[in-house]
Write a structure and sequence with these properties.
Helix content: 55-70%
Distance between the termini: 44 Å
Number of strands: 0
Strand content: under 5%
Shape: flat
Number of helices: 3
Order of helices and strands: HHH
Structural class: mainly alpha
Radius of gyration: 16 Å
Largest sheet: none
Length: about 60
């Protein structure tokens, strides 16, 4: 688990981390605590490197003959 969190950081993971921090800050400043849920979602994606990106969730379309 430690290896997953500490290695393979790329631009998309940094972007997700930035979005999470922005949402946490926005929730604190505006007292709209619903934004914390979205922030937690993006933080989880950034830390565990999960989610769709760069064709990792592509659907294989094959035609049956």
């Amino acid at each position: 688990m430690k290896n997953v969190i500490l290695t393979n950081w790329h631009a998309m993971r940094y972007l997700r981390l930035g979005i999470a921090l922005f949402l946490f800050y926005n929730a604190y400043e505006t007292h709209e605590w619903f934004f914390v849920l979205f922030g937690a979602f993006f933080l989880l994606q950034a830390l565990l490197n999960i989610g769709c990106g760069a064709n990792s969730c592509g659907v294989n379309y094959t035609k049956n003959k």
